[in-house]
Specification:
Jelly Rolls, 2 domains, 4-stranded antiparallel sheet, GOLD domain-containing protein
């Protein structure tokens, strides 16, 4: 095992000392004050008019504590913002308000348009934060992955997974699913990503087939991603430090949503009075400004947080393990070198990384792949020639997805050379299909 000298285990105590450098300025007192006023207004509406079943569910959600996990709170804020934007669309206003029959209605309509724009801007800030944070985490993890065909495979797996997730979301939208339905799916997908991280860190489930390809990844990284989201793991310190203000903002936006929702359902019986409209406007101003301030702050914390050790530290580790990954062989002039890989199932990946030892003059070597089925017949010759035509390289790394089971032979050809031997340094492997299974999900939950 390679030395891990100089690597600092990332623990909750370690993060606590780091977070001391990033104190969050308390939320404005207006957050609690305006939330209380909005809740008082909704209590009056509940008392005067019976609730529908859907309204009761929303009231129950307001009365519950916000989720404990910070990322779940981010998704909840995003969901409630979208629900509010939906309510603030003119086509969803109460019929009486849509008619704009009085100067007061016209003025209130202008205010609602302004509030909608504020929420739209905040939604863009939140979406950008979530997208950038996800990309940054993935890119950080990838700095520790082997920079060869295995790293490429991990990226390809992620791209396919994200396309499949987007297709699921599109299907929900196209089938007329609600905003709530869409966000329930989005959060489930987020939890799937988390399970995959846990599986990677613990080398269980489908990742039993991948862990041996992660040679060179510091164990401290695998340990961290395995327990990153444990209830008492390192992230609990983040929830302890920065959760309370986020929880308050989650409660505030949900209270605003409930107030607008109840008001729209009772508008013909009780128009929003001047003071209530003013409080609503203030509440939206305070929520959007404070939430955007929190996102800006937490973005800086995340960008600098030592969740993973630096790539420089990882690169300073003993290089002996990397050398053990490669084989080195001399291919004599006029000869070839072959490596055969048995492939038991389709959609496996054949990957390679090779180079020639530098010499006094520029040299290359031919490279191609053949497939032989169980009867000894060479198959898919045209297919392989199309995607992997014979070429001469100084070095190359790549991979392809197999179309059938059989024996795949990687061939390095130096037969065209009459005088020069080639020193070939290479590694190859066959990685079975990696697809989330019910068994692996159960292992992650167990």
């Amino acid at each position: 095992m390679a030395s891990i000298e100089g690597l600092v285990p990332i623990t909750r105590n370690f993060l606590a000392s780091f977070y001391d450098k990033y104190p969050f300025s308390p939320l404005s007192d207006d957050v609690s004050r305006l939330t209380s006023q909005i809740r008082s207004f909704t209590a009056d509406l509940q008392h005067q008019f019976p609730l529908t079943q859907g309204e009761s569910l929303l009231v129950n959600e307001v009365d519950r504590q916000p989720p404990h996990k910070m990322d779940e709170n981010m998704w909840k804020n995003r969901e409630h913002i979208e629900e509010i934007i939906f309510l603030l669309e003119k086509s969803h206003w109460p019929q009486l308000l849509q008619q704009q029959s009085t100067p007061e209605d016209i003025e209130f309509g202008i205010i609602l348009g302004q509030l909608k724009e504020k929420f739209l801007n905040t939604l863009k800030v939140l979406e950008s934060f979530q997208s950038n944070n996800s990309e940054n985490i993935f890119n950080t993890v990838m700095t520790y992955m082997p920079q060869d065909f295995r790293g490429t495979l991990i990226k390809q797996q992620r791209e396919r997974s994200e396309r499949a997730k987007q297709a699921e979301i599109d299907a929900v939208v196209n089938s007329g699913g609600s905003i709530r339905d869409r966000y329930a799916l989005l959060w489930r997908q987020q939890m799937d990503r988390r399970k995959q991280l846990a599986l990677l860190g613990s080398a269980t489930g489908v990742y039993k087939t991948l862990v041996k390809y992660l040679v060179g990844v510091p164990q401290v990284l695998l340990d961290f991603i395995r327990q990153i989201n444990d209830d008492e793991g390192p992230m609990e310190e983040q929830r302890h430090r920065y959760g309370p203000p986020l929880y308050s903002l989650t409660t505030m936006v949900l209270s605003i949503r409930l107030f607008i929702h109840l008001s729209w359902g009772r508008y013909e019986h009780r128009n929003l009075a001047g003071p209530q409209a003013s409080v609503l406007q203030q509440a939206v101003d305070v929520y959007t400004s404070e939430f955007e301030r929190f996102i800006k702050f937490i973005s800086e914390v995340f960008a600098n947080s030592p969740f993973f050790i630096s790539a420089e530290e990882a690169g300073a580790m003993d290089a002996s393990r990397k050398n053990e990954e490669y084989k080195e062989i001399t291919v004599l002039a006029g000869k070839t070198h072959e490596v055969s890989l048995p492939v038991e199932s389709i959609n496996s990946y054949i990957g390679w990384d090779f180079s020639l030892a530098p010499g006094k003059m520029s040299m290359d070597i031919g490279f191609s792949v053949e497939c032989t089925n169980s009867t000894g017949q060479k198959t898919f010759g045209f297919y392989l020639q199309m995607i992997l035509p014979y070429r001469r390289y100084e070095s190359d790394q790549g991979n392809f997805c197999t179309c059938e089971a059989g024996k795949y032979t990687l061939i390095w050809d130096n037969s065209y050379s009459s005088f020069f031997k080639k020193v070939l340094r290479y590694k190859v492997d066959c990685i079975p299909p990696v697809a989330e299974s019910a068994q692996s999900v159960n292992e992650a939950e167990g």
